C-alpha cells in the first residue's frame, strides 16, 4: 500500500490564505513590492485594483498611493504587462522573464498571426511594411522614454492608418494600426504600460520599452511560475492550476512533476497539490510578518478585509467553495465571471462593498447568520480604514457587479 497522503482541511486552507496573502493583521506588508511578491501577480486590468489590493495588505495603508506609484513608475520594481490568460497583471520585475517565457510567447505568436491575417483580409500592407512601422515606433519610444499612441504617431505617421476588421460581419469594426500593433508588442514583451495620463484610477496609459530580461526555456519558466504560485496559493487542484495559468493539462502536469509537487487530499474528496515539503500543519514557514519574523506557529487570529474587484485572492482559484459559498456568487460576479468588491471574514467571502458618490464606503453581509458582532465591528473598521486612505478619490470598478451597483447607487 502507498503512503497515506496528508489531508488539508478547508479551515487550514483559510489560515494559509490569511498569512500568505498578507491579510491577517500580523502578516501585513511594509511595501507594495512585498505584497506583489506574496501574491505572485496583481490583476491590472482595472488600474484601481492594483492600489486597492495593495492598500488592503499594507501595515500603513496611508502610504498606498505614493508607495505603489513609486514602485511602478520610479523604481520600476513592479511592471504592468500581459500575462496569464492574456490578462494584464502587475508583476515583480524579476518575474517578468518567467511570465513572458511561460505564457507570453505562445499568446504573442497567435496575436501577431491574427493581426497579419486581419490586415491581409482588409487589403492592408503586408508583414514587411508592418515590420518597418514597428521598428520605427520602437525607436521613437526609445527616444521619448514614455509616450502615448498619439505621440508615437507624430514620429511614425503610419501608426494612424486604419483597416476594417471582420468586414461584412455583425462585429465589423475599424482598427488603427497603433492600437493593434502596440497590443501585440505588449504581449511579445517589447513594450509595457508606463505612467497613467490621469490619477491612479485612470485606464489611459503611456507606453514604455519593456525592461530587458534574459531569455528562458519555456519548461523551466513554467516550473518556476507554478512553484511560486503554489507556494502562495497551495493546495490547489489541477483545475485551479489550469484556470489560473491558462495552460494545457499536459503543461500543468509537466510543471508539477518538474517541481516535485506533493499531492494532498482536500475536504469534499478532491486532490490538491502543494510545493514539495509544504504539507506540514499550517504550511512550512507561511512567510514573514511585518516585523520580518516567521508566522508559522501562530493560531488563526480573527481578521476582516475589504478586497477590490478582480483581487488576486478572490480570483485565485477556479474551485471556490472553500472560501465562497454558492449562494452569494450571483450578486458578486458579473456575467463574464469577474468578481466585484468583496467583504471577507476569517478566510470566507461574507459580503460585498462599494463606494458612494460622497465617498462613503458601504457594505452588506450576504450571509449575516455566519458572522457575529465581532465580525461586523472588524468589517466596519476596515471600511473606515479604506475610506481614510482613498480620501477624495472616487473609485468605480471597471467591471460592475449587481451588488456593487446597488450599494453605490
From TrEMBL:
Taxonomy, superkingdom: Bacteria
InterPro entries tied to this protein: AlkZ-like (IPR009351)
Protein name: AlkZ family DNA glycosylase
Amino acid at each position: 500500500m502507498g503512503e497515506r497522503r496528508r489531508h488539508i482541511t478547508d479551515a487550514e486552507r483559510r489560515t494559509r490564505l490569511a498569512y500568505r496573502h498578507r491579510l491577517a493583521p500580523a502578516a501585513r506588508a511594509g511595501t507594495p513590492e512585498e505584497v506583489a511578491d506574496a501574491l505572485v501577480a496583481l490583476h491590472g486590468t482595472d488600474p484601481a485594483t492594483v492600489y486597492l489590493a495593495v492598500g488592503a495588505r499594507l501595515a500603513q495603508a496611508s502610504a498606498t498611493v505614493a508607495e505603489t506609484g513609486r514602485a511602478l513608475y520610479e523604481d520600476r520594481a513592479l511592471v504592468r504587462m500581459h500575462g496569464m490568460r492574456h490578462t494584464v497583471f502587475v508583476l515583480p520585475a524579476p518575474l517578468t522573464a518567467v511570465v513572458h517565457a511561460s505564457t507570453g510567447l505562445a499568446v504573442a505568436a497567435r496575436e501577431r498571426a491574427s493581426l497579419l491575417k486581419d490586415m491581409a483580409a482588409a487589403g492592408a500592407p503586408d508583414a514587411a511594411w508592418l515590420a518597418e512601422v514597428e521598428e520605427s515606433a520602437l525607436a521613437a519610444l526609445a527616444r521619448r522614454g514614455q509616450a502615448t499612441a498619439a505621440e508615437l504617431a507624430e514620429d511614425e505617421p503610419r501608426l494612424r492608418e486604419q483597416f476594417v476588421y471582420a468586414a461584412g460581419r455583425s462585429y465589423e469594426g475599424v482598427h488603427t494600426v497603433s492600437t493593434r500593433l502596440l497590443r501585440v508588442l505588449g504581449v511579445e514583451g517589447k513594450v509595457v504600460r508606463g505612467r497613467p495620463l490621469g490619477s491612479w484610477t485612470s485606464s489611459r496609459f503611456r507606453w514604455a520599452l519593456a525592461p530587458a530580461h534574459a531569455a528562458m526555456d519555456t519548461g523551466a519558466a513554467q516550473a518556476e511560475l507554478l512553484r511560486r504560485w503554489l507556494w502562495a496559493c497551495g493546495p490547489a487542484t489541477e483545475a485551479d492550476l489550469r484556470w489560473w495559468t491558462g495552460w494545457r493539462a499536459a503543461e500543468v502536469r509537466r510543471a508539477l512533476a518538474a517541481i516535485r509537487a506533493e499531492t494532498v487530499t482536500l475536504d469534499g474528496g478532491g486532490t490538491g497539490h502543494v510545493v514539495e515539503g509544504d504539507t506540514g500543519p499550517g504550511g512550512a514557514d507561511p512567510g514573514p510578518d511585518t516585523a520580518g519574523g516567521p508566522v508559522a506557529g501562530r493560531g488563526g487570529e480573527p481578521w476582516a478585509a475589504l478586497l477590490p474587484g478582480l483581487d488576486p485572492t478572490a480570483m485565485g482559484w477556479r474551485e471556490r467553495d472553500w472560501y465562497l459559498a454558492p449562494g452569494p456568487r450571483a450578486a458578486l460576479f458579473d456575467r463574464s465571471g469577474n468578481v466585484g468588491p468583496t467583504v471577507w471574514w476569517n478566510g470566507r467571502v461574507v459580503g460585498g462593498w462599494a463606494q458612494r458618490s460622497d465617498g462613503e464606503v458601504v457594505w452588506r453581509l450576504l450571509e449575516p447568520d455566519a458572522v457575529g458582532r465581532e465580525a461586523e465591528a472588524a468589517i466596519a473598521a476596515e471600511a473606515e480604514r479604506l475610506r481614510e486612505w482613498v480620501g477624495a478619490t472616487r473609485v468605480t470598478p471597471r467591471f460592475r457587479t449587481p451588488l456593487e451597483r446597488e450599494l453605490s447607487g
